[in-house]
Amino acid sequence: MEKLFLPGFFTIMIHLVIHLATEAKHARPVHYRWMYPIERELYGGVDVFELDDKTWLQAHRHVLFNCESEVVENYKKKHIAEIKRAHRKCCLTQHQLDHVHFDTFHEWFKKQVKELEAKSNILKDVKVLAQRPSYIAKRFSAFDVNSGYRFRTKQSEEFNVTQNSGVMIISKTESYASTSNNAPKSANITYYGRLNNIMELNYYEKCKVILFKCDWVDVTKGRGIKEDDLGFTLVNFTHLTDSGD
């Protein structure tokens, strides 16, 4: 084409039309050779370690209860319905029901999927979650996301000028006036924390999940957080909330 057209004709868009088609012809479609794993990469020395029972259970529960899957949500609803039927006589409060559901769902889910697997087809992702993760995990000191976010553990940036260990999330949280309360209040609450550990949970090479372990500040005003005269939020890390660790 360079022999047929003047140099001014070849803008960047003209080059893309020609070169991208040729590139796809020789190297095959882009999704077979993209660099997404590099753009979203874990950094720092890899520390392979074995999870203790408590941490393993906390991590697995976190994955199950934060999994954005309609299928898993249906299993949760089914489990809650079974708990209600099993406790018809004692009439559990909503707080007690949530507590039993949280404590027993992972075991019930595993058993339920195993029973249904012999009778019908189960989604691969659901089977992977039901099998539960390996006790062998990996620990990292840094995590970069291709959207521009950089995360560092508190220990790794102890002597750095910049700070990337601070985290903030807005979570829909249900609160109870008491354990006998049947009408929990739901609200979006902003939580502030500091990143202590970056862990890769491995579901036997079929699925890997990155988890952040953080110190979370008590969000009660006057204790863990407060606003200054200019409206900025000040965080006090000497007042932490109990995260169940």
Could you explain the architecture of this structure?
- This protein is α+β, with helices and mostly antiparallel strands and 245 residues long.
- It has one domain (8-235).
- 33% of the residues lie in helices and 25% in strands.
- It contains 6 helices and 10 strands, in the order ααββααααββββββββ.
- A hairpin with a 5-residue loop joins strand 9 and strand 10.
- The model has no long low-confidence stretch (mean pLDDT 84).
- InterPro entries: DUF4216, DUF4218.
- Keywords: Signal.
- Residues 1-27 form the signal peptide.
Give the key terms.
6 helices, signal, 10 strands, five-stranded antiparallel β-sheet, 245 residues, DUF4218, 25% strand, alpha+beta, three-stranded antiparallel β-sheet, extended, DUF4216
Regions with pLDDT < 50 over 5+ consecutive residues?
none
Share in β-strands: 15-25%
Q: How many β strands by DSSP? A: 10
Give me the Rg, rounded. 25 Å
For the record, the count of structural domains works out to 1
Continuous helix count:
6
Task: Give the overall form.
Answer: extended
Global mean pLDDT: 84
The H/E string reads HHEEHHHHEEEEEEEE
Specify the biggest β-sheet: 5 strands, antiparallel
In short:
This protein has about 240 residues and is an alpha+beta fold. Helix content is about 35%, strand content about 25%. The chain has one domain (about 10-235).
Strands, helices and their partners?
Blueprint: H1 12-27, H2 36-39, E1 41-43, E2 47-50, H3 53-65, H4 70-86, H5 94-117, H6 124-131, E3 136-140, E4 142-144, E5 150-152, E6 166-175, E7 185-202, E8 208-216, E9 225-227, E10 233-235
Antiparallel strand pairs: 1-4, 2-3, 3-7, 4-5, 6-7, 7-8, 9-10
Helix pairs in contact: 4-5, 5-6
